[in-house]
């Protein structure tokens, strides 16, 4: 916003210094739990681009295969009506989320991707209390689901290639530094080669987790035997609501609902040899991940 102030004084003979103008930028803040489907305007989300011709735009995308929102009539999309350009560099900034009361923040959203594989794509950064921007997570992060798949242009990791439709991505962010505000930005970059329709973002949710004793939860979890051949007994706290088992590439292998029980047996004889991630989710949203090795 542009703010202009001026003084009118009848004894002032010099009117060249009566006016001062300055730009002020106000950030929109949002409390948790936050759910937004982008159907009612930007609500404090905004694009900032460092190159020409490629932008995050809010609306209905029309370039296949990223040519429809996940829900409703609006999503954020890289160039709604055209492919992205080469050497693109643009960021979509979120509002400031108030996270001072939360030890963990669960971040969920949907992405639709059509880019040059292992070159063009998008990654997510975060800033706590206005500090430096940091890349959130790593490829196949154990605290996440469907989190990054390759390295990409600019010595970064991110989501690249074809998602073949909308995919659900989630991350359990540990607010161990006790930050008061959290801001996100989705960064899109491309190299000098192939172009495509780009990336769409829709239906984002942030929820906070209060007062968790993570160590206590962790110490009540065991996998036996590990390594496993035929069966593995998983023991867990009574607050556990579900278990998700994925391979190291993030592909879901098995999902188990836990209702008033503290142990579950999985049949590993059907699994291929290798490592798997066992994610236990409790009723407050805490995700605790253990590594399981299967040998035959």
Explain how this protein is built.
Helix content is 2%, strand content 47%. The protein is an all-beta fold. The chain is globular. The chain is built from 1 helix and 25 strands. The strands form 5 sheets. Strands 3, 5, 8, 9, 11, 12, 14, 15 and 17 form a 9-stranded mixed β-sheet that branches. Strands 4, 6, 7, 10, 13, 16 and 18 form a 7-stranded antiparallel β-sheet that branches.
Structural class: mainly beta
The main pleated sheet reads as: 9 strands, mixed
SSE sequence, one letter per element: EEEEEEEEEEEEEEEEEEHEEEEEEE
Spans of at least 5 consecutive residues with low confidence: none
**Based on CA inertia axes, which overall geometry fits?**
globular
CA radius of gyration is 23 Å
Q: Output mean pLDDT.
A: 88
Share of β-strand residues: over 45%
Q: How many beta-strand runs?
A: 25
Helix fraction, binned, reads under 10%
Count helical runs: 1
Give the end-to-end Cα distance, rounded to a whole number of Å.
Answer: 65 Å
């Amino acid at each position: 916003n542009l703010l202009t102030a001026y003084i009118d004084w009848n004894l002032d003979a010099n009117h060249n210094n009566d006016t001062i103008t300055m730009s002020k930028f106000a950030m929109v803040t949002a409390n948790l739990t936050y759910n937004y489907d982008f159907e009612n305007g930007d609500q404090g989300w905004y694009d900032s681009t460092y190159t020409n011709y490629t932008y995050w735009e809010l609306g209905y995308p029309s370039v296949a295969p990223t040519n429809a929102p996940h829900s409703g009539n609006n999503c954020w999309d890289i160039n709604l009506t055209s492919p992205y350009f080469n050497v693109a560099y643009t960021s979509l900034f979120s509002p400031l989320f108030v996270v001072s009361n939360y030890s963990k923040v669960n971040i969920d959203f949907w992405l639709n991707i059509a880019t040059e594989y292992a070159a063009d794509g998008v990654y997510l950064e975060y800033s706590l209390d206005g500090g430096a921007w940091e890349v959130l997570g790593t490829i196949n992060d154990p605290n996440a689901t469907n989190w990054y798949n390759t390295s990409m242009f600019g010595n970064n990791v991110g989501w690249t290639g074809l998602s073949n439709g909308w995919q659900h991505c989630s991350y359990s962010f540990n607010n161990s530094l006790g930050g008061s505000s959290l801001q996100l930005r989705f960064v899109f970059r491309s190299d000098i080669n192939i172009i495509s329709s780009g990336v769409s973002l829709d239906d984002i949710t942030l929820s906070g987790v209060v007062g968790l004793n993570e160590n206590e939860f962790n110490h009540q979890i065991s996998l036996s035997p590990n390594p496993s051949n035929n069966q593995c007994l998983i023991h867990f706290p009574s607050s556990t609501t579900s278990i998700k088992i994925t391979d190291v590439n993030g592909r879901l292998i098995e999902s188990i609902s836990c209702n008033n029980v503290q142990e579950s047996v999985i049949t590993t004889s059907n699994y291929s040899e290798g490592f798997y991630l066992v994610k236990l989710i409790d009723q407050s949203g805490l995700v605790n991940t253990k590594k399981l090795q299967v040998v035959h």
